[in-house]
Amino acid sequence: MMPTYRSSPLVFILTILLALSSSVSATRRNKKTDRVPKTDLKGYKVPLSNGTMNLPDPDGPLKAITLGLGTQNYTCNVTTPAPVLVGAVATLLDLSPLLPLIPADEGMKVLEILPAYLLNFDYETILSFAMPVLGDHFFDGEGIPTFKLGELGHLEGKKVPGADLVAPMGASPGQEGEGVGAINWLKLGDAGGSKGVSQGYRVQTAGGKAPVKCEKEGDFEVPYAALYWFFK
Known about the structure:
Number of strands: 8
Distance between the termini: 37 Å
Strand order of the largest sheet: 1-2-3-4-5-6-7-8
Largest sheet: 8 strands, antiparallel, barrel
Low-confidence stretches: 1-9, 22-37
Strand content: 25-35%
Number of helices: 3
Shape: globular
Mean pLDDT: 85
Radius of gyration: 17 Å
Order of helices and strands: HEEHHEEEEEE
């Protein structure tokens, strides 16, 4: 049975975070240097287990926790009976300055439901929360998953061998609990050319999965949300 994200008691905490986000976004820069101040994320640990298997541990310090909201992009043609992933596009909302406002144990619980919760809102509504935007995610011209992270740098990623797990049982399959399923959890390493960060994790995924079979030819998008954790 799918969790009722809108009725969860943790939504109260989430609502407070969203209410505080506009003031955090306005004050998080140092006026003298115009540089983003460091954020203390002590107590936050990237989830690695889907309940049966684990992703590899990170081997560097945590640099940022973000929420990716966007689409997984697929194509179908006469040579592909099943949809083929051709890329993804997402906005990366910066959760790092918000999370220290609450205890880490409560923050981890909020992170667990956050992607599925916000996937139910349209993009304009989410932007009205004034959550700080760190950067964006896309596939470059060579098909490399790329993450632009502002002053933190950027990750040009590649899948780490064996670091690809199906989403846990009970993960949101899509908007309002409807959809084909949640995309896999991943660990990404540096494909070369990254700066400031060298590892990324996609976890707590919601939606984004394509149907098993192509129904017609052409390109299509599937909305998704996920947490992206970045490490040096």
